[in-house]
Protein backbone atom coordinates (compact mmCIF):
# COMPACT_ATOMS: atom_id res chain seq x y z
CA UNK A 1 0.00 0.00 0.00
CA UNK A 2 1.43 3.38 -0.97
CA UNK A 3 1.69 6.25 1.48
CA UNK A 4 -1.11 8.09 -0.37
CA UNK A 5 -3.39 5.06 -0.14
CA UNK A 6 -2.52 4.54 3.51
CA UNK A 7 -3.18 8.17 4.35
CA UNK A 8 -6.42 8.13 2.37
CA UNK A 9 -7.60 5.06 4.27
CA UNK A 10 -6.83 6.62 7.66
CA UNK A 11 -8.42 9.94 6.72
CA UNK A 12 -11.59 8.15 5.62
CA UNK A 13 -11.70 6.30 8.94
CA UNK A 14 -11.16 9.53 10.87
CA UNK A 15 -13.89 11.38 8.95
CA UNK A 16 -16.48 8.60 9.29
CA UNK A 17 -17.24 9.40 12.93
CA UNK A 18 -17.03 13.14 12.47
CA UNK A 19 -19.89 13.08 9.95
CA UNK A 20 -22.17 11.62 12.64
CA UNK A 21 -21.29 14.39 15.09
CA UNK A 22 -21.61 17.07 12.41
CA UNK A 23 -24.95 15.75 11.14
CA UNK A 24 -26.48 15.55 14.61
CA UNK A 25 -25.19 19.06 15.36
CA UNK A 26 -26.57 20.59 12.15
CA UNK A 27 -29.92 18.81 12.42
CA UNK A 28 -30.79 20.46 15.71
CA UNK A 29 -32.47 22.75 13.18
CA UNK A 30 -34.73 20.74 10.84
CA UNK A 31 -33.24 20.16 7.40
CA UNK A 32 -33.45 17.82 4.47
CA UNK A 33 -30.70 15.60 3.13
CA UNK A 34 -29.51 17.77 0.26
CA UNK A 35 -29.28 20.90 2.41
CA UNK A 36 -27.34 18.89 4.99
CA UNK A 37 -24.92 17.78 2.26
CA UNK A 38 -24.40 21.41 1.24
CA UNK A 39 -23.95 22.59 4.84
CA UNK A 40 -21.46 19.83 5.62
CA UNK A 41 -19.54 20.47 2.41
CA UNK A 42 -19.36 24.22 3.09
CA UNK A 43 -17.97 23.44 6.56
CA UNK A 44 -15.29 21.15 5.12
CA UNK A 45 -16.94 17.75 5.57
CA UNK A 46 -16.71 15.98 2.24
CA UNK A 47 -19.45 13.37 2.28
CA UNK A 48 -21.31 11.83 -0.63
CA UNK A 49 -25.06 11.36 -0.85
CA UNK A 50 -24.69 7.58 -1.05
CA UNK A 51 -22.96 7.73 2.35
CA UNK A 52 -25.16 10.36 3.99
CA UNK A 53 -28.64 9.01 3.28
CA UNK A 54 -27.98 5.56 4.77
CA UNK A 55 -26.42 7.32 7.77
CA UNK A 56 -29.57 9.42 8.23
CA UNK A 57 -31.73 6.28 8.09
CA UNK A 58 -29.48 4.55 10.63
CA UNK A 59 -29.57 7.53 13.01
CA UNK A 60 -33.35 7.62 12.68
CA UNK A 61 -33.65 3.88 13.41
CA UNK A 62 -31.49 4.46 16.52
CA UNK A 63 -33.95 7.10 17.71
CA UNK A 64 -31.48 9.97 17.30
CA UNK A 65 -33.36 11.62 14.43
CA UNK A 66 -36.99 11.99 13.53
CA UNK A 67 -38.27 12.70 10.05
CA UNK A 68 -41.34 14.02 8.34
CA UNK A 69 -42.32 14.72 4.76
CA UNK A 70 -42.88 18.28 3.61
CA UNK A 71 -45.36 18.10 0.72
CA UNK A 72 -45.97 21.86 0.49
CA UNK A 73 -43.62 22.19 -2.48
CA UNK A 74 -43.87 20.59 -5.91
CA UNK A 75 -41.27 18.01 -4.92
CA UNK A 76 -41.84 16.35 -1.51
CA UNK A 77 -38.82 16.49 0.79
CA UNK A 78 -38.05 14.46 3.87
CA UNK A 79 -36.98 16.72 6.73
CA UNK A 80 -34.86 15.42 9.58
CA UNK A 81 -34.41 16.77 13.08
CA UNK A 82 -32.59 15.48 16.13
CA UNK A 83 -34.62 14.00 18.93
CA UNK A 84 -33.96 14.81 22.58
CA UNK A 85 -31.79 11.68 22.69
CA UNK A 86 -30.02 12.77 19.50
CA UNK A 87 -29.24 16.16 21.05
CA UNK A 88 -27.84 14.45 24.15
CA UNK A 89 -25.72 12.05 22.08
CA UNK A 90 -24.44 14.93 19.92
CA UNK A 91 -23.45 16.92 23.03
CA UNK A 92 -21.66 13.88 24.51
CA UNK A 93 -19.84 13.23 21.22
CA UNK A 94 -18.76 16.87 20.94
CA UNK A 95 -17.49 16.77 24.55
CA UNK A 96 -15.52 13.61 23.77
CA UNK A 97 -14.19 15.19 20.56
CA UNK A 98 -12.94 18.17 22.59
CA UNK A 99 -11.34 15.86 25.17
CA UNK A 100 -9.61 13.80 22.47
CA UNK A 101 -8.43 16.92 20.64
CA UNK A 102 -6.89 18.19 23.87
CA UNK A 103 -5.27 14.80 24.54
CA UNK A 104 -3.73 14.62 21.04
CA UNK A 105 -2.53 18.22 21.36
CA UNK A 106 -0.96 17.37 24.72
CA UNK A 107 0.78 14.36 23.17
CA UNK A 108 2.11 16.56 20.38
CA UNK A 109 3.43 19.21 22.79
CA UNK A 110 6.92 18.47 24.11
CA UNK A 111 6.83 17.90 27.84
CA UNK A 112 8.67 20.45 29.89
CA UNK A 113 11.55 19.04 31.89
CA UNK A 114 10.48 18.79 35.49
CA UNK A 115 13.11 20.13 37.84
CA UNK A 116 15.35 17.29 39.03
CA UNK A 117 13.73 14.63 36.83
CA UNK A 118 16.53 14.62 34.26
CA UNK A 119 19.23 13.49 36.68
UniProtKB/TrEMBL annotation:
SUPFAM superfamilies: Winged helix' DNA-binding domain (SSF46785). Pfam families: PadR (PF03551). This is PadR family transcriptional regulator. Residues 26-88 form the Transcription regulator PadR N-terminal domain. It comes from Actinoplanes aureus. It comes from the Bacteria.
